[in-house]
Amino acid sequence: MNDALCACGLDVGSTTAKIVAVDRAGEIRWWHLEPAEPRVEDQVARLTDLAARAGVDLSTTPLVATGYGRNLVKVAARTVTEITCHARGIQREFAGGGVLVDIGGQDSKVIYINPQGAVVDFAMNDKCAAGTGRFLENTAARLGVALDDLGRLTLSSREEVPITSTCTVFAESEVISLLAQGARLEPVLRGLHRSLVRRLAAMIRSVGATSSLLLSGGVARNRAVAQLLEEETGARVQVSAHPQLVGAYGAALVALEMQTQVE
Amino acid sequence: MSGQGRVTARAGLFLGRAALRLRRIRAEQRARAWQHDVLGPPLRLSPREKELVGRHWLEARFAPGLGRKVAWVTSGAPVELLKALDFFVVYPENHGAICGTARVAEGLMMEAEAAGYSRDLCSYARTDIGCVLSGRTPVGRIPRPDLLVACTNICQTVLFWYRVLAEMFEAPLLLIDTPFVYYDEAPAHAVEYVKRQLEEAVPLLERISGVGLKAERLRDVARLAKTASELWMEVMQRNRHQPAPISAIEQFIQMAPIVEMRGDPETVDYYACLLAELDERIARGIGAVQAERKRLLWDNLPVWYRLRDLAETLGRHGVVLVASTYTNAWGELAPMIDPERPLESAARTYLHPILNRGTGHKLATMRRMIDDYRLDGVILHSDRSCKPYSVGQIDQRERLTRDYGRPALLLEADHNDPRCYAEAQVANRLAAFIEMLGP
After folding, report:
1. C-beta atoms of A68 and B438 within 8 A
2. Helical H segments across chain A, by residue range
3. pTM (2 d.p.)
4. How close, in Å, is residue B426 to chain A by CA atoms?
5. What is the CATH number of domain A7-86+245-262?
6. What local confidence, expressed as pLDDT, does residue A127 receive?
7. A95-239 architecture in CATH?
8. Which residue of B has its CA nearest to A207?
9. Residue B297: its H or E element
10. Chain A interface, mutation test: which of B317, B394, B423, B428, most A Cβ atoms within 10 Å?
């Protein structure tokens, strides 16, 4: 076993599952990320096996679970919501608090963190996938555009075709019909990103005005989102170094605190 | 009314009351063995309240058989006048709530939707219309209305809802128009305007009921309504105590008599007993939640089909809903009721419900309640069906959070339509909010 790995965080999200192990100082020492599977319990078993092979002794190392599937993680010492975990993870990376925008597969969150790292307010998209990663993912899949190319193609256009539907399903139909009418792909993609970012901006306003934003979640890898978010809000956007791991990392930090308290 | 009809009605009442009594006794026996890992013991009086409400609907069913005229009214209708004229008063909104808690509202709403009523309409209205169209109800049978009374002090939907009912039943509709109160208090001319509507309605009401209005009877009913409202206010105010002896979730259930049986002596008796039980709970240190840690305010109607889940979810974290603007609305106007000037005071009282006043008034009410009940945060239920209650909540949330330092959560749902309730999202928001409240 690897004594350096003191605590573990597992984020079972709607699109991806992530596991992170940290050392005594709270630095990420090992991580793994893979697409989410419908059989959560089987996937969790496999992920904890992987962690064991990486040297995490789960009989002595506390594991904190977060994400939508957190309650299905039987080995978890504790379950904590994504809101708290994201705040904890991002606070470690960018000390001093701020407003975090996390764009996940199924929901988007805006979290207001005070300078001490405590959550003072949050907003989430309600009941609808508009404003989430799924919104872009669905449309990209229909258009045959790889997710990794989405940002580059979007930013390659200065033109923008507005997308009026906020519903993910209807936006997809709208994009297809625009393309069928001869619209170019890149301006349509830019319009699609604008639609997503506008919804996020409204959520950010509901939590409070800010001059800088922190960005996490899988969608943060898409450069166009950060750039358009800056345009839309006028705030400077800083992207996490491991945008998809922030929740799992925060969970690992909560686990580390538990470990420290026991000692 | 035929003699045979009366005999049948009396027999039905007798048997129904006996069945309700038996159900209450069994429930009381079951309650003694009741245990829960996080919630406090249930109120001893709960089975009696169920019996009281059950009797109300039983009596409604047989009221026409006993020669009484039936009025269907909105929750903010000036009921004292109707009771003084011996109308049996039925509240479709309360019936809607019963359907919601019994989880039969969805099927009834679908009946209304199949008949062309949009899903964007209030879920109480759809439940009620679905009930009329299908004849299905969990309360046995609802008597046809001889009169419909809609008062605009809760929303404008009731205007259209009751016009639909008027057409369905070919029943007369009495509309009481209560102008919106923009500032602190309704102006004298608004009070005069509503009072005159009530005065002008008297001959019509007397004609329908066949009973003449007696000043003494009206005073008595107003006195009973005032006493019951005062007692209800006291019941809620017992939650200034820590731990809170009765959660707002339990209040949602216990409020049925003050809404639909206001002006009846049984309601006064019931709340006097409830108050005594709460005092006993306080003396014995019994709380609604076993380990009370955080105290919250609830704004808006409850989510009727999720009351138990909400109580348990919060209770597991030592969180209790201590107060609600909704239950408060049925007590806060008690001081305005003046039995010596029943019509004028009814005009004033029914002009001032929380929904007939500005969003600033609601914010001030919430702030006062936060102080009175020493609350740690607020859950604002953004109720898809109740726009007048939900409008302004985004600003109210912001003001509570920033200016008043109380965490506030906006929870999107619907009071009666479970299709507007996103289970996973609600659970996640609640969990995150509880974590945010801190240790």
Report:
1. no
2. 40-53, 82-93, 133-143, 147-155, 168-180, 185-207, 223-233, 246-262
3. 0.91
4. 9
5. 3.30.420.40
6. 65
7. 2-Layer Sandwich (3.30)
8. B398
9. strand B294-299
10. B428
Q: Do A68 and B431 touch (CB under 8 A)?
A: no
Chain B residues touching residue A68 (CB < 8 angstroms): 424, 428
Which tens digits make up the pLDDT trace of B412-429? 999 999 999 988 889 999
User: Using the beta-carbon criterion (under 8 Å), do A83 and B432 form an inter-chain contact?
Assistant: yes
Closest partner residue to A84 (CB to CB) among B412, B429, B432 is B432
**Domain residue limits, chain B:** 3-437
**How do strand A212-216 and strand B319-324 relate by DSSP bridges?**
unpaired
Element of type H or E holding B270: helix B265-283
The predicted-structure confidence for B325-357, as pLDDT tens digits, reads as follows 999 999 999 999 999 999 999 999 999 999 999
Pairing between β-strand B173-176 and β-strand B294-299 as defined by DSSP bridges: unpaired
Residue B370 has pLDDT above 60, yes or no: yes
Instruction: Give residue B34's pLDDT.
Output: 80
pLDDT in tens, B5-35: 899 999 999 999 999 999 999 999 998 888 8
Question: Are the CB atoms for B61 and B142 separated by under 8 Å?
Answer: yes
Q: Which stretches of chain A sit within 8 Å of chain B by CB?
A: 68, 80-84, 107, 118-124, 126-127, 206, 208
Each domain of chain A, given as residue ranges in start order, spans 7-86+245-262, 95-239
Strands B377-383 and B294-299: what pairing? parallel
Average pLDDT, chain B: 96
Which region holds residue B392: left if phi is over 0, alpha if psi is between -120 and 50, else beta? Answer: left
pLDDT (tens digit, 9 = 90+) per residue, A100-155? 999 988 888 999 999 888 999 999 876 677 778 888 888 888 888 998 899 999 99
**A95-239 shares the fold of A7-86+245-262:** yes
Contact at CB, B429 and A121, closer than 8 angstroms: no
CB contact under 8 A, A120 and B407: yes
Do the chains contact at A208 and B402, CB–CB below 8 Å? yes
Segments of chain A scoring below 50 in pLDDT: none
